[in-house]
Write a structure and sequence with these properties.
The protein is of the alpha/beta class. It contains 12 helices and 15 strands. The longest helix has 17 residues. The radius of gyration is 20 Å and the shape is elongated. It starts with 5 loop residues before the first strand and ends with a helix.
Length: 372
Amino acid sequence: MREFSRSKSHVMVNRRQAITAGLGGAATLVLAGCGSTSSSSSSGSTGSSSSQSSYKVAMIMSGTITDGGWDQGHYESLKKALDSHSNWTMLEPKENTADADAASAAQSYVDQDVDLIIGNGNQFASDWAEVVSDAADSHPKVHFLITNTDPSSEMTDYDTLDPVETVLPDFKQTGALAGVVAGLMTQTKSIGFIGGMKLPSTLTKYAAYLAAAQKIDASIQGQYNFEAGFTDASLGTKLTEQWINTNNVDVMWGDASAVDNGARQALEQAGADTHFDIAQPIDIVGSDQPTVVTSTVTDWMIGQAMDEVESGSFGGGNVIEANMSNGGISLGKFSDKVSSDVQSKIKDYADKISADEFLTNDEINAIKDTLG
């Protein structure tokens, strides 16, 4: 997904730049073991309880609300939050926001005194430092929520974090949930994974995915590619076809938005009754997705951020973790291709994953160490 590192002295490519450059890569093979990481949280709050009766929220994204992946997942999380916050109004989202336009997009909402401005990914942390600093002085009611961002490493050059919070999913839990599904559904003992970029979050997801599958059956092998980009569906088809033909892959999980759609096409061509996909980050099980057996779903905890804005406790660079305990991470619906017996086993494993009793960090790191 989108995770990009930045400080004044070090800038890594962000998702928008990756899309523009058309990043892609050849298939790479791996087999390995098990493990995990968890996001850290900083504490701090600003402001006092608000007496206002209505609020405005706006979302800025690098893609579209219909991309079937990252940005659509954020948009659906926002709509879910609005369902339980009738006193909030959503302004029209800014889609396809280029890096060069990110600051001006945020400033346009600041000028409207929007209560909560959401940036879908840490590429926005790289662009909003000055906007946030100015807004903290000139528009004190404006708050900023940036997803997939660790303030301790990615916002070190901000003058103030008073109006800012971030959201980090538990990537270990997400990968482990996908892994137990893959481990129980594969008949060939060969599973695949496509990532858009070789990011820390992507590596943790894949390592937990394979580690969890190997907890089910130690003979399961994993195929991966971490350089597929986020837009070329045909590359997802090509990679998956190659793995099906040469490695007998029969279950896929992806972290590459539109590329994942291509992987599903290859699985369907190989036989939707024997080749399965685990979708991410939204629930897309249905008759129009014959290979999808379930989905790993991320809720970006926007409702919690809204509550904090209303109470006056939002800010201070606090990190909101999305995990299984607070509903931030979950499995979606199951297709009828997942038997009731398998669903019961998945539930038992999910309980252990939620309690952090299924995978160890050492098991995940053992797989990471093989990835180079």
